[in-house]
């Protein structure tokens, strides 16, 4: 895989850098050198990215060994040529066969189904994502406790039949004028497979960021890719609200690496508790599992954990089960807010009957290392955590699962805040504006969440204030689309769910395949209902379109049926019921690796 990534990389960079060199050379020829230099040292205006054209161009020739030319730009290109002898864009271009290139950023519920449904005879489809697979998120909670194997919640982007081209990298920047995106390779990135909670460069100062960027550029770890159509579906990060210690010590549940970490830690807690030298007080604390967030993810994880404890752990560690406890916290007065009151009550009653403590209207203040009130000598080798809840005593726990909502992907803010140059051909105006060409346009975003605003054909919207400050001009980009959790449709309140992301992907694929992005053909969300597993072979279903609400075992059968049928590959449709049966017959696999 890394060979492919590199081999795609070089030509792209070289081509792009050459184009940029060319465009700057033309300007150089036309204008004065000082004007060009001024431009080069200005931050790039079409992005709040940490990089700037200045950074790209003003490399000191002395920094580049064996430089023989007088222009730093030419040297930069030469440097790239020297370092990337085995990489080539021709591969991607050769197989294009006159097709338009659709670049999809992200391989989640928006990007992956879109890549599968686009007509590959018509489009060359390239996914850029740090994750080489798609995650079927509704099954993550089951995989984290061993009800299902991790494999069953994944679909690899590359497979023997796939025609989609893939580059394992982070989209770092977008140049709307030249229709290129800048990619940072991610093959060896330690963040992949895990939930992200903040900017990857957080904590670094600008000098360090610039230095690292130059190094990456020189080493070919940063390169450009041209697109004809761009689909942004980079999803969201996990929200921590800046709560002290959460990023460092909590577990999240957003990707398969998170599920693996949770399973490992759970079993670790039981093994630590099983040591003959562990005191009962420590056992009570490290077998206490706290879940923060009473949305469907927090509830489903609590339910799956309860199933694991009371069907398998109770037989495997009979002497320890008396110490095990689950507590779920939420800052709001109720859990499962998106469900009807009757279903909420059904779920909370079921939880309390089973001994899962639901603590609402609680604010978590901190998550710290170490168990409260336990001598550090006694704790040695049995690491635990302290959960500090407002107005409550410190609580010793073995693990905290944090699931309190979404935070906008920092890429959206960094790469898409403002537009440096106005791309006239690429814009469709709502009406004709006199000052359009001189106005400062921005990507339209939600003021509160920061997500990208699109129209109901999923095209990214841009706006610019009128020069007199009275209102704003509106337009949308012809070839740039946004779907999934990182976007919303103007004047709508569709939830950030897989259902919405998947329907948008479907609609966009059909529309692009049929060249039908005009007239009355617009995206409409079709609410198919929501459901949540609440443990002990029971679920709740809030139906839509005349289908009533359901709860209990019938709802659980429906929950299983729906997710099985929605699974993408036949491989997983076969594997999932097999694991359900195996675990029912022989118990969950609790090996720790
Ligand atoms: C545990 C869990 C259970 C859920 N259950 C349900 C459910 O039952 N029903 C439901 O409707 N919804 C559910 N959801 C919500 C659903 O998963 C999300 O709404 C959905 O994943 C959003 O799809 P997306 O494509 O926008 O983002 P994601 O699926 O998160 O995908 C984002 C992709 O972008 C990539 N990416 C990130 N940054 C960059 C970058 N800079 N450049 C390139 N790529 C990038 C990521 O690696 C990833 O591949 C669940 C979510 C979780 C976490």
Automatic annotation (TrEMBL):
Pfam family, one: Pyr_redox_2
UniProt entry keywords in alphabetical sequence: FAD, Flavoprotein, NAD, Oxidoreductase
Domain External alternative NADH-ubiquinone oxidoreductase-like C-terminal: from-to ranges: 528-589
Residue ranges of every copy of the FAD/NAD(P)-binding domain listed in the record: 101-411
Keyword Cytoplasm (UniProt): no
MF GO annotations: NADH dehydrogenase activity
Alphabetical list of InterPro entries matching this protein: FAD/NAD-bd_sf, FAD/NAD-binding_dom, NDH-2, NDH2-like_C
Entry-linked Gene3D superfamilies: 3.50.50.100
This protein's record includes keyword Oxidoreductase: yes
Start and end residues of each stretch annotated as Disordered: 33-55
Entry's Gene Ontology cellular component terms: mitochondrion
Family (UniProt): Belongs to the NADH dehydrogenase family.
Name by which UniProt lists this protein: Uncharacterized protein
Source organism of this protein record: Aulographum hederae CBS 113979
Organismal lineage: Eukaryota, Fungi, Dikarya, Ascomycota, Pezizomycotina
